[in-house]
Amino acid sequence: MKTININPINKFHNQISIFFVLISTLVFHNLIAQSNLSYPIVDTKQSLFYDTLNIISQPQAGENFYGQDANYPGYQPSYVDNGDGTISDQITELMWQKSTDINNDGVINVDDKLTYEEALSGADTMSLAGYNDWRLPSIKEMYSLIIFSGVDVSGWEGSTNDLIPFIDTDYFDYNYGDESAGERIIDSQYASSTLYVGTTMNGDETMFGVNFADGRIKGYPTGPMPGQTEGKLFYVQYVRGNTDYGTNQLIDNDNGTITDNATGLMWLKDDNGEAVKWQEALSYAENANIAGFSDWRLPNAKELQSIIDYTRSPQTTNSPAINPIFNCSSIIDEDDNENYPFYWSSTTHANMSASPGGSAAYVCFGEALGFMEQPPGSGNYNLMDVHGAGAQRSDPKFGNPDDYPFGHGPQGDVVRIYNYVRLVRDAAPTAINETSSTHLKVYPNPTNGYLTVDLGKETSITNIYIYNFSGSLVFEKEIKNAQNQVIDIQKLNTGIYFVKIIGPEKVYSKKIIKN
Q1: What Rg value do the Cα atoms of the chain yield, rounded?
Q2: How does DSSP classify residue 69?
Q3: Measuring CA to CA, how many Å separate 88 from each of 6, 145, 146, 167, 171?
Q4: In what order do the strands lie in the sheet with 485-488?
Q5: Same domain? 390 vs 456
Q6: Mean pLDDT over all residues of the chain?
Q7: Which end of the chain is more exposed for a tag (fewer CB within 10 A), N or C?
Q8: Which regions of 178-236 does DSSP assign to beta strands (E)?
Q9: In this predicted model, what pLDDT tens digit does every residue of 465-505 receive, in sequence order?
Q10: 445 and 420, same structural domain?
Q11: Would the pLDDT of 21 be above 80?
């Protein structure tokens, strides 16, 4: 019998080759699935970096404040102006009314605003661009348009010419509140079709709306405001298409994680179990190694809002506003009642102050409480649910909550500063739970055309591959030396790509954005 000696090095290379084929196959199928998401989360478009107060240079992995929103670019907003008064969103497959100029007089002002009932009924007679299936958007559809390159104008008095709203004005016609009609600049609330299952203030029926002037979701009364006889007025932007947008497809993976097949995101089933400051939330996320994954992150505001369940609330279901497939800590609120937490996002909520980065966005999974002075000027404050479970507001990144005994703003939003954390990762970001490297770097990301692969101390890299969002190989290069590699991808279309870097013993991967 002839004995065959197998070189162990060749055997290892064969195993790695087989492993990479399996990896590539899974990557391809995962990317195909991801390209068919019914609820892709459009990125916040936040590109600036902040510490607890101000704009800073981009932090790198391992440095303070790494892991914030701008460190993790996602599906960048991508719109097409159809030239007929409509805008198509290439990410969500929703089509939007371009302008809130409802009366078509060429000016967006209070005359274009509608009551909640008028906004609902107006969709029935809408025939813009020949379509008759327009609808008042849900709160998740409406929130898909928000971008956090905007700056909160709360308290601003003066010209609106240089202000930056939380909506893309390169595509959508926009105006702030109509000061000539006695409105505040901040009165730029947009109506949605989503009603709060509880009530706010003094038992008011409440609709969730998005304010593109201050970058928040709040509950607003569907009827008259106190002291008024007519219903509150809202801007209205109708939508059509992708009727599945905003509907989650949650799967319990039986390992402490939940995958949402609609968004392509994987969540931890449990939260962190304690209230922490914003910087601590970032650090907790970046150092988490749970369920076999080390690429957890603090979700941005839009990712976090995607798992709100607007059919639930502490008032009506005795539960947080999240699907019970998740576990949610309970808290004792400012009125000594059992309630549920606010959760930090990685998104800074920029404002007009001398310290523009001093606050970060959070999402309320419990009641959005506030101290209302009743009657105004009386000095008598009542704590109540002022904006509804499912609201998105903001908190200072540091400080002492005791310094805000009656909250902040006109509704006295409670100020906690210490909030909870729920981690997220891409369900197939780098496809599988592959090996990461602190030495390898791929930059700039996003990139406009030239990509540098910094091999660092990894001296035995053999191949670099780039796959597009559909899983097709669009670039490959064999590495013959350990020098940094500069790759020209100018001819690639704008979108999301996956860089695969192959060594004799490891497989590395990185998601990149091509602008």
Answers
A1: 25
A2: G
A3: 59, 12, 15, 15, 10
A4: 441-443, 450-454, 485-488
A5: no
A6: 88
A7: N
A8: 189-190, 206-211, 216-221
A9: 898 765 678 998 888 776 788 899 999 988 788 888 877 65
A10: no
A11: no
3-state helix, strand and coil shares in percent for the chain, rounded to the nearest 5: 15, 25, 60
- Confidence category of residue 512, pLDDT binned at 50, 70, 90: confident
Examine the domain organization and report whether 408 and 314 are in the same domain.
Answer: yes
Residue span of the structural domain in which 296 resides: 250-425
Residue 295 has pLDDT above 80, yes or no: yes
Task: Give whole-number Cα distances, 156 to 186, 350, 354, 397, 471, in Å.
Answer: 8, 13, 13, 21, 48
Looking at the structure, tell me whether residues 500 and 371 fall in a common domain. Answer: no
Q: What pLDDT score does 10 carry? A: 41
Specify whether the CB–CB gap between 54 and 493 falls below 8 A.
Answer: no
Are 442 and 421 contained in the same domain? no
446: cis peptide before it, omega within 30°?
yes
Residues 47-101 pLDDT 10s: 999 999 999 999 999 999 999 999 999 899 999 999 999 999 999 999 999 999 9
Domain match, 316 and 453 both: no
Q: What is the pLDDT of residues 303-353, one digit of tens each?
A: 999 999 999 999 999 999 999 999 999 999 999 999 999 999 999 999 999
With tokens 């009743």, the residue in question is 374
* Listed residue (164, 256, 247, 248) closest to 213, CA to CA: 164
Contact 314, 366 (CB under 8 A): yes
Beta strands in 182-244 (DSSP E): 189-190, 206-211, 216-221, 239-240
Q: Say which CATH number the domain at 32 has.
A: 2.60.40.3080
pLDDT of residue 501: 83
- Give the pair of three-digit tokens for residue 26: 């899974």
Q: For the residues 407-425, what does the mean pLDDT come to?
A: 96
* 41: nearest Cα among 328, 272, 345: 345
Q: Looking at residue 36, what is its pLDDT?
A: 72
Residue 112 backbone zone (phi > 0: left; psi -120 to 50: alpha; other: beta): alpha
Please spell the DSSP secondary structure of 117-182, one letter per residue: HHHHHHGGG--GGG----BPPPHHHHHTT--TTS-B-TT--S--TT---SS-TTTS------GGGT
Coil/strand/helix, residue 281: helix
Looking at residue 384, its pLDDT comes to 96
Same domain, 438 and 401: no
What domain count does the chain have?
Answer: 2
Query: What are the CA-CA distances from residue 477 to residues 45, 375, 436, 473 (Å)?
Result: 31, 71, 20, 11
pTM: 0.80
Encoded tokens for 395: 């908190």
| Beta strand 331-332 pairing with 338-339 | antiparallel
Domain boundary (381, 408, 425) is at 425
What span, in angstroms and rounded, lies between the C-alpha atoms of 130 and 121?
A: 18
Does residue 272 form part of some domain?
yes
* Domain boundary residue, one of 395, 425, 455: 425
